[in-house]
Specification:
The protein has helices at about 130-135, 155-165, 190-200, 220-235, 250-265, 275-285, 315-320, 330-335, 365-390, 395-415, 425-435, 445-455; strands spanning about 5, 10, 15-20, 30-35, 35-45, 50-55, 70-75, 75-80, 90, 105-110, 120, 125, 140, 150, 175-185, 205-215, 240-250, 290, 295-305, 325-330, 350. With about 450 residues, the chain is of the alpha/beta class. The chain is elongated. Belongs to the ATPase alpha/beta chains family.
């Protein structure tokens, strides 16, 4: 028998508190009726006979009296079928694109679990993004989680849109490839930008979008990535598809978590974020991967903006512990009018070594990527020396390194938003740029590779 509660104890921000509650469950969905309004929420805390409910819509207009609260006995579930492809949903999985509801017998709880480590399959094949700096130096491997660390004002939205419209896997499996895009706390113009780019580039049919806008309730922001990952799990492990999940902006998600934690009067941790921020982020990131016995995969690119460009801030810091590398955008490179402004030195992909080389990309890829990192690192040393003694006083080889550095940034790193380079084109361009340096400086490349590919 479902009971209705006709009185609240208190309303505080997005939370309502009820007392005298029986048999409530954590994460249970609650229906709140006040006059003609019907709102929904979920149970976030239970203590003795009290239940704290997080309201998805805002709590404006609610009263502690003249209200009806009904516990549904079920967690938040979304309807799933292959018909979700090409559709746009709000943060709690409701269609907002005038395409009608999704009618399906399959419903899934959005509070999914991380993949069991015993059931995981080691990621191997790469995903081509068409962006040279990523494909060549921080290769994205299928089943990997590879975040983008950005800053306010940097073009991470452009990068996310470019990855979505260009990403592909091997041609034999590309028909089974799709993208789940989750936006949290984005402005209306950013949401319209993503929709327009995906429509114009013709990829919207293979994209599932979950949009939580900046003026949507903060509570919805907590649900958005969970709805997106639930959809991704269904497509990957029940429809045997390869899914790339792009989530932006994880900083908005963490800010929402901090706001709700504060409303619940929890003891704050670093910089006011809740002490469970690490485990909360892990519960999202660890839903990516490949499983034994399943042919599908989930690959994640979470995008976050570092407050004050501080890579030691709790959000990038904890994200870096959980994920397998990072792509770091740099403000100085951006100010030199280079797009995408990826700083390759602090960027890395920890699974890259297992998905490149012969049989995956090309035989020379591992050697030449190592050499590129080494030479660009030397460029930074030469730039520092030139600032002390002046560029005219540098040795001839140091001047070659400066020339290489300029060519690397403006020819290799820099590419247009609509420029889609395949891996062969990227590797050939890398050899052109590296061949500025004498062969004697390329000490990380096998002699047979130098003989075959060096352009000097």
């Amino acid at each position: 028998m479902i009971k209705e509660y006709l009185e609240l104890q208190k309303i505080e921000g997005p939370l309502i508190v009820l007392s005298g509650v029986e048999n409530a469950s954590y994460d249970e969905i609650v229906e709140i009726k006040c006059g003609e309004q019907i709102k929904h929420g979920k149970v976030v805390q239970i203590y003795e006979d009290k239940a704290v409910v997080q309201v998805f819509e805002n709590t404006a207009g609610l009263s502690v009296k003249d209200i009806s609260v009904k516990f549904t006995g079920k967690p938040l579930e979304i309807s799933l079928s292959k018909e979700i492809m090409g559709r746009v949903f709000n943060g709690i999985g409701e269609p907002i694109d005038d395409g009608g509801d999704i009618y399906s017998k399959i419903k899934r709880d959005v509070n999914g679990r991380p993949i069991n480590p015993v059931a995981r399959k080691y990621p191997r094949d790469y995903i081509q993004t068409g962006i040279s700096a990523i494909d060549f130096l921080t290769t994205l491997i299928r089943g990997q989680k590879l975040p983008v660390f950005s800053g306010n004002g940097l073009p991470h939205n452009n990068l996310a849109a470019q990855i979505v419209k260009q990403a592909k896997i091997s041609s034999s499996q590309n028909s089974d490839f799709a993208i789940v895009f989750a936006a949290m706390g984005v402005k209306h113009d950013d949401a319209h930008y993503f929709l327009r780019i995906f429509e114009e580039s013709g990829v919207l049919d293979r994209v599932v979008m979950f949009l939580n806008l900046a003026d949507d309730p903060v509570v919805e922001r907590i649900i958005t990535p969970r709805c997106a990952l639930t959809a991704a799990e269904y497509l990957a492990f029940e429809e045997n598809m390869h899914i790339l999940v792009v989530m932006t902006d994880m900083t908005s998600y963490c800010e929402a978590l901090r706001e709700i934690s504060s409303a619940r009067e929890e003891v704050p941790g670093r910089k006011g974020y809740p002490g469970y921020l690490y485990s909360d982020l892990a519960s999202l990131y660890e839903r990516a991967g490949m499983m034994e016995g399943a042919s599908g995969s989930i690959t994640q690119i979470p995008i976050l903006t570092m407050p004050n460009d501080d890579i030691t801030h709790p959000i990038p810091d904890l994200t870096g512990y959980i994920t397998e590398g990072q792509i770091v955008l740099n403000r100085d490179i951006y100010q030199r009018n280079i797009y995408p402004p990826i700083n390759i030195l602090p960027s890395l992909s920890r699974l890259m070594k297992d998905g490149i080389g012969e049989g995956y990309t090309r035989e020379d890829h591992p050697d030449i990527a190592n050499q590129m990192f080494s030479c660009y690192s030397k460029v930074q040393e030469v730039i520092a020396l030139a600032q002390v003694i002046g560029e005219d006083e540098l040795s001839d080889i140091d001047k070659k390194y400066l020339e290489f550095g300029r060519e690397f940034e403006y020819r290799f790193l820099n590419q247009g938003f609509d420029e889609n380079r395949d891996i062969e084109e990227t590797l050939n361009l890398a050899w052109e740029v590296l061949s500025i340096l004498p062969q004697g400086e390329l000490d990380r490349i096998a002699p047979e590779m130098l003989k075959k590919y060096y352009r000097g």
